[in-house]
Amino acid sequence: MDDKKIIELFFARSEKAVNELSDKYGSVCMKAAMNILADKRDAEECVNDSYLSVWETVPPQKPESLLAYVCKIVRNLSLKRIKHNSAKKRSGNYGSCFEELAECLPSAETVEDEIQASELSGIIDEFIDTLDYTNRLLFVRRYWFMDSYEDLSNITGIKEGAVRTRLSRIRGRLRDYLEKRGILP
To answer: pTM for this structure?
Structure first.
């Protein structure tokens, strides 16, 4: 079933909407949650919670991309869960992905920093638009979906070592881009 029809089911408040959403995007959502959490039960719970969130927000929201909409919810719920779990010393790829980006991104600690973080998001979007398809795919899959290097290698057909090298170079380009924009000293 196409996304438009699934959204229509949500607007009609049909429980079939959740089943259709799960059938179409359940595996993608589960993969995104597992990449962050590395715990099947936590991932399943976040995915199920995301379905409830979609049910509660559509309507009034009418997402242009249902996949992007549900994945963003899954990601946000998974990140909240990882913060909760990190107190218990459990984590998935979350830590390693953000450690890689730490040298490129300033930390947000004050309200002013939060505002700057919002501006930074727009600048990073502009940077991503400068990347070719493969580099954009690698960057987004690693730092948004938190895919492992092995998964990225399988997706792109590029050797794992080359994936690591490309991502290192992309981070370097991001750092340069942010320096030119006055975000980094």
So the answer is: 0.69
